[in-house]
Amino acid sequence: MSILVYIEHDEGAVKKTSLEAVSYGKALGEKEGKSVTAVALGKIDDAELTKVGSAGADKVLHVADEKLSAGVIQAHANAVAKAYEKEGANTLVLAKSSLGDAVAARLAVKLKAGLVSNVVDLPDTNSGYKVKRSIYTGKAFAITEVNTDNKILAVKKNAVSLRTDGPDAKVEKLEVELSESDFSAKITSTDKATDEISLPEADIIVSGGRGLKGAENWGIIEDLAKAMGAAMGCSKPVSDSGWRPHHEHVGQTGVKVAPSLYVAVGISGAIQHLAGVNASKYIVVINKDPEAPFFKSADYGIVGDAFEVLPKLTEAIKAI
Ligand code: FAD
């Protein structure tokens, strides 16, 4: 028996969330005494795939068919199902993502597998097979019991410590026969609306609130975001006032984010804002009011005036 991990890549670069899924698979494999095989589809260099070993894969199967772009979801599901069969796997692990959701749903039907999404911990197998998942944008956890032989676990971003100490993985080519119908529906293009870093997928976000006083002051947020390679976000009143576009509004009624680092500047930390950010790995709050509620959710805080702190912070980051 083995554990199969589905790898997503961005034009040949393995996604960090997939490496986290591999590390999760490795920890699960150690617990259950199983080996871990990763499967990658489409055009990607072997050199990139060997790196999947450092996150914990014992072996990587590469289905090198260039037709397997991320836009052919049914073909992905069937190719992964064939790799799953070949490896004699009984568990598929993947990252929770929009592509992952689409592939996992099809595989759950095909493999008659119980699917659990947003997984944050290893299953508890003391009595049954109980999986802890994050719900309500990270505010609560649910325990889901899976009683099928085949299992699919979609791991939440930032929920797993990424391993980096494994040896390079052995890459094997895998030929799979796919039918024409697997390619009958295809996403042919996704046009970027903007060159800005996409907020829901950003790894670092600098977000501004009403404490910035007006649109004309956003330069200090932009400068810090640029220095950090971050996307920009804002609180609801900021977008309601037209200081920033609505697609930057973070929170319960806006975008839900899960970056590694969320920097909140001049945002009070209302519950509706926190609902969109509490899946962040680290939160840094910059606010001149030491009593601002956001400090209670912060990993690090700076009590100070944003107009003094931000330029200094940006300079310090640029100097690194
Ligand atoms: P404020 O609450 O005005 O806070 C400004 C902060 O800036 C203060 O803490 C102040 O100390 C600090 N500050 C001021 N000057 C400086 C300075 N010079 N330097 C540093 N700090 C400074 N809000 C959201 O953000 N997202 C949502 O999705 C959302 N959904 C909502 C849904 C509903 C149904 C409702 C009722 C409300 C919702 N809200 C949402 C609004 C939310 O309740 C808060 O009103 C809002 O988040 C407050 O925005 P803010 O923190 O930018 O402004």
Automatic annotation (TrEMBL):
<feature type="domain" description="Electron transfer flavoprotein alpha/beta-subunit N-terminal">
    <location>
        <begin position="3"/>
        <end position="187"/>
    </location>
</feature>
<comment type="similarity">
    <text>Belongs to the ETF alpha-subunit/FixB family.</text>
</comment>
<dbReference type="InterPro" id="IPR014731">
    <property type="entry name" value="ETF_asu_C"/>
</dbReference>
<dbReference type="InterPro" id="IPR029035">
    <property type="entry name" value="DHS-like_NAD/FAD-binding_dom"/>
</dbReference>
<protein>
    <submittedName>
        <fullName>Electron transfer flavoprotein subunit alpha/FixB family protein</fullName>
    </submittedName>
</protein>
<dbReference type="InterPro" id="IPR001308">
    <property type="entry name" value="ETF_a/FixB"/>
</dbReference>
<keyword id="KW-0249">Electron transport</keyword>
<dbReference type="Pfam" id="PF00766">
    <property type="entry name" value="ETF_alpha"/>
</dbReference>
<dbReference type="InterPro" id="IPR014729">
    <property type="entry name" value="Rossmann-like_a/b/a_fold"/>
</dbReference>
<keyword id="KW-0813">Transport</keyword>
<dbReference type="InterPro" id="IPR014730">
    <property type="entry name" value="ETF_a/b_N"/>
</dbReference>
<dbReference type="Pfam" id="PF01012">
    <property type="entry name" value="ETF"/>
</dbReference>
